[in-house]
Amino acid sequence: MAEPRVIIVGGGFGGLSAAKALRHSPAQIILIDRTNHHLFQPLLYQVATSVLSPGQIAAPLRSILHKQKNTTVILAEVTGVDVARKCLRVRDADHESALTYDDLVLSVGTSFSYFGHDAFAPFAPGLKTAADALEVRNRILHAFELAEAEENPGQHPELLTFVLVGAGPTGVEMAGAIAEMVRTTLKSDFRRIDPATTRVVLVDMAPRVLQTFAEDLSAAVHKRLEKMGVEIRLGFGVDQIDADGVVGGGGQRIPSRTVIWTAGVKPSPAGQWLNSATDRAGRVRVGPDLSLPGHPEIFVIGDTALVEQDGKPLPGVAQVALQEGHHAGTVIRRRIAGQPAPAPFRYHDLGNMAVVGKGYAIIETAHIHRSGFLVWLVWALVHVRNLALANLRVSVFLQWVWSYLSDQRGVRLIVEHKGGADG
């Protein structure tokens, strides 16, 4: 009898967790992703602000799973699902094909959303991929180079103003990192400009930063950012973004050559593939075991899934995806082995964290609201531990120690992308 085939779409936190849960299963596991690597997205902002290189937060999927002999990695893009025939439509560089499955795990993630204003995209890149982070890094560093070369001092304020649209974790962490960079690493590198005159402006329509955190922690972060020189404009709805800056908040224009999109995200097309019920955000509604209602062979996890617990939807964070991936893999493994199914999925909240510059972070759990240096140390240890490979953990740890002691950044290179790669 042929081994059952389990296809996992997506090599992010959820997909990898599901694959690892099936490592001892007598099944053929196929992991499909559009890239050949797993990316540690929580540290993308550090690539964008020159602390780390892409090669320090990304690992080849084949390297991560090389000891897992029942697992094959395929570099391709899934374009649809035929639920009735139990097969995927897959496109690689040369052709389209179909892959059949016995069980399917969709962990496709999200992309950033401009809320219907896609014309903003050329002027305000977001952060979802390594290529996005490199583009943002290029823009930030290029702004200082342009200002240094500009002989008219009247042009310097516009060149040295950075606007971040969205005051969630990514926006807050990016704002803190840029503010830290200009007052430490870059302070003595230029002769015709003073990096300390840089403006970092964080805007959001929300009434406070970090809306998903408790109000006391939000207030602490707000105060910390202002102490670092970040301008915060709340209740500021963005109406226009162009080559000259941002317009919003009742017609106010913030002149800037560098705008970074750190606002909302949109889900994958999984709901359309499955022709299934979704919420307003496009997340697929799943059952207690994370399977699609009426299709126990299809599991949807991570940012793609709507999972409610205690009356609230679970957030789109890495820990949720990790735990959901492990649960889906366990359900499939037990089913193949003829064992009873596990209890319905329940997320164990380990807390949310955010970092704001060097030596300061916040943590929120059910019983703990803390901020400061000790929390920053915990944040660093947690993130190092969760990197995919041991060599990355060593590399990032040493880079952080060096950056902390010397105020020097790891990679301050402007790299023009013309089919090449940057590490």
Count of helical segments? 11
Q: Do you know the CATH topology of the largest domain?
A: FAD/NAD(P)-binding domain
Helix content: 25-40%
Average pLDDT taken over every residue: 93
Q: Please describe the biggest sheet, giving its number of strands, its sense, and whether it closes into a barrel.
A: 6 strands, mixed
CATH top level of the largest domain is Alpha Beta
Low-confidence stretches: none
Summary?
This protein is an alpha/beta fold and 423 residues long. 30% of the residues lie in helices and 26% in strands.
Helix and strand arrangement:
Elements: E1 5-9, H1 13-21, E2 28-33, E3 37-39, H2 44-48, E4 58-60, H3 61-64, E5 71-75, E6 77-82, E7 87-91, E8 96-100, E9 103-106, E10 110-112, H4 130-149, H5 156-159, E11 161-165, H6 169-183, E12 199-204, H7 215-227, E13 230-234, E14 238-242, E15 245-248, E16 252-255, E17 258-261, E18 265-267, H8 270-274, E19 284-285, E20 291-292, E21 295-300, E22 305-306, E23 308-309, E24 312-313, H9 318-337, E25 352-355, E26 361-364, E27 369-372, H10 373-385, H11 390-406
Parallel strand pairs: 1-2, 1-9, 2-5, 9-21, 11-12, 11-17, 12-13, 19-22
Antiparallel strand pairs: 3-4, 6-7, 7-8, 10-18, 14-15, 15-16, 20-21, 23-24, 25-26, 26-27
